[in-house]
Amino acid sequence: DETLWMNGAVGKFSCPGLLCLPGTFNVNGRQMTEDDLCNECPGDENSTFYGSTYCSALEKEQATRILKSMYDTMGGSRWYNQEGWSSSTDVCEWYGVECNEGSQVGSIALGANNLVGSLPEEIYEISGLESLWLYSNPITVGFSGIEKAKTLRSLQLDSTGLTSLDGIGGAPALSEIDVRFNRIDGKLPSELGKLSRLESFFCESNQLSGTLPKFEQNRKLISLRVGDNNFSGTLPAFNVH
Fold first, then answer.
1. Exposed/middle/buried for residue 188 (C-beta within 10 Å: 0-12, 13-18, 19+)
2. For strand 97-99 and strand 105-109, is the pairing parallel, antiparallel, or unpaired?
3. How far is residue 121's CA from residue 53's CA, in Å, rounded to a whole number?
4. pLDDT at residue 240, as a whole number
């Protein structure tokens, strides 16, 4: 009896209980409860794809809103290059922004571009974001909410004035971190061990101290730069890498 399929969801919700119909979506790709509806995706009316888990048009709209907030709060009118940021052009055409094939914002590269102020926490809510390069700008960056950046792989925050790495361990996909030439002090946080995909970690020229962690959980780590700090003790063997 097909009405019993998917734990009875097909019997309750018909076809959407199996897969969201073309032109609709939800995070599970199908309806599982009364409130878990498959919603219409603007501009996707001619799609033939069943079970969509996202809507590129809505995600792009959200990314545009977040980046406009970033422009407004980080002195955008004084950036060295602000092409597209104050216009109505497609976000994928803005300076420093690159989109992937699905039109998701995949990269933000605004290094040495005279950004100031605090990075909006909402930046981590941009779906599909893979790299965030803001190096050589005098900005304030925190990592609250970074766990929402499910696809963020590369983070370049060298020469920004960064003072803490608290929270950075929440980013599930991070593989490259560059926080050189900043003002981070104290011990390296143990939460770095949560970054199982970490391949390179650069923290040269800070005020870090204590012993280096063994990085035993970071089994993919292949490049480490920690010079010009105040570390002490024995260098880890790195025999698990």
1. buried
2. antiparallel
3. 24
4. 66
183, amino acid identity: R
Residues 191, 164 contacting (CB under 8 angstroms): no
Provide CB contacts within 8 A for 85, sequence distance 6+: 67, 68, 71, 76, 79, 94, 95
Q: Does the CA dihedral 88-71-158-167 come out positive or negative?
A: negative
Contact criterion met (CB below 8 Å) for 171 and 144: no
Please report the pLDDT score of residue 207 as a whole number: 98
- The SS3 of residue 223 is strand
Give Cα 127 to chain centroid, integer Å.
8
User: d(Cα 92, Cα 103) in Å, to the nearest integer?
Assistant: 7
In the chain, which stretches have pLDDT less than 70?
A: 1-4, 240-241
